[in-house]
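#random but structural
TW: two for the price of one
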Amino acid sequence: VRNAGPLPDRLLGAWSRHAERVQLRERDPASATAFRASEDGLPIPAGGVLTMEPGGPHLAVMGLREPLGPGATILVVLRFE
């Protein structure tokens, strides 16, 4: 997620009609491998990038309303500060 603006921003949440919920997750500072739900959102620095990837901050799409096949995509709406 690229923030082209002059001020920092924060990804606060996400939603998809294809799932019961979409949760922002970040690495748990108390663990080398565990993740936890982000309570404060995920920061995006001014003029910077928030990279979501396995092993880093990411979205967990839970309770899919229909099974997804190989190569399937879903629409996810992101909510920013």
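TW: number two ↓
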Amino acid sequence: LSQVFSYHKKYISALFKKHYRISVVEYIRTVRLSEACHLLENSDLPIKRVAESAGFRDALYFSRVFRRVTGMSPTEYKHSVKID
């Protein structure tokens, strides 16, 4: 973002947090987790592919973050939303 707008990254971060009351990093993580939930609900992709498709480079990190936010693992979430 700082390159796109030609401002220092600390300035962009402070401005973003002031207006949205969430850090840029938290916002990006939220968007990625939302996409991961959508993929878990609507596809049969393996967890590793869901993590990659949602923008996480590491599936293990994705699983830790997902569990911290949702209270369940991606696999548990996937099974809880699937209605057979």
